[in-house]
Fold this sequence. Notes:
The longest helix has 15 residues, at 13-27. This protein is an alpha/beta fold. The protein has a seven-stranded mixed beta sheet with strand order 9-8-7-10-11-13-12. Helix 6 crosses helix 7 (221-228). Helix content is 25%, strand content 24%. The protein folds into two domains: 3-173, VC0802-like (2-Layer Sandwich); 177-296 and 337-433, Vaccinia Virus protein VP39 (Rossmann fold), CATH 3.40.50. The protein contains twelve helices and 13 strands. It is elongated.
Amino acid sequence: MPEYLILLAQTHESFRKAELESVAAYEGVEVDLSHHDEQSPFLYVTLEDDDQARRLVRRSILSRAIYEVWGKADSEAALHEDVRARSSSEFDKYKTASFKFDFISFRGSRVKAEQRDIFESFDYLGFDGPIKMRNPEEIFAIIEDYKPSFHSNVDKPRLRHIFFGRFLAYSQRDVVDKFDLKKRRYIGTTSFDAELALISCNIALTGPGKIVYDPFAGTGSFLVAISHFGAMALGSDIDGRQIRGKKNRNITTNYHQYSLQNYFLDTFISDFTHNPIRASFKLDAIVCDPPYGVREGLKVLGSRDSERYAAGKPTVLENGDLSHLRPDYIPPKKPYHFDALLDDLLEFAARNLVDEGRLCCWMPTANEDYGQREIPAHSDLELISNCVQEFNRWSRRLLTYVRKVRVAGIQDSDRPRGKRVYLEEQFRDKYFRGFSEKPK
């Protein structure tokens, strides 16, 4: 089978394999990614043909491009030998096509004169077509990988690997800039990073003909990402102020900004613990970032109630005074442990996802207790990936579950439910005390 090189983005490395596996599943492409190296931007794969190669990266956010391998080696001389041995039968196919050469280096560089000398060393290809720097019919790339240098001011980078191949396709990496929150018309303090929202939706297999739900929609970051991939987006939130937005800026404004109105189903106000979606209404995927009380800080209650509510003490809400709240805000009925919220989310997903539908949810973890903390589980859901974004003393993880195929004759109500033992101190409390300090 032909060999291809995927050029990967050097960001969110622990997400790259999960995203490519998800894209492969969505596109029906069989590929072995077990040798993926998080330290390297290069991933060699074998595929049936160029069409599969293009399909593998065309939805990807964490890939940059894919190339047909014409040769690879650990030196320039060995590269030319491999190109002749491996790809000489391909030369005549592109003899008259317009073309250009690209030069890409990782952990090293070449001056223009050196690059030109390397380009000219491929004169045996026999290409007679015109060289066009803009819109050529074919692009050929020389990609170099250098050994890391620990004394960059003294040691000259040493070549570890050099590749030559034909460009096939770019990924969707450019949409990260398009959806950048800095350019978005309506955002809030809880708006989720655009790149990670797109990655989450890719892993959730969102696409045309699907209904995808975010139960903690906020200002609609995931909704926009869901719709970008062609799925119908449905969202809800306990705080209707975020959904409604301001006078001239709201979720609908963002949909108009990106011309995605046709992929917006609706939003509604709902406390997730009393979700009105009936069990018979099946969803193709759920993508969300459940609230864990860091960015929002429970300020939706109003300053006079925030501290008392966070401490589990009575507030004026319990005495019926709602004058300081907007009419479309539904206050929680009782303090809600974040781990209990995750368990309820998994229960909802098991009930409302179609068979083999996916739940992608984010979970924060303090680095000090991740080994002790239990990843939420459900007998009807299979955890297929656990990607981590690391910060200083804490991380957040994108957990991806697949709804197992239902067994005929067994109802959800017949399945026994287990209870996890929750950590006494919640993540929010650890975050605000600085993790390293001892709890009071």
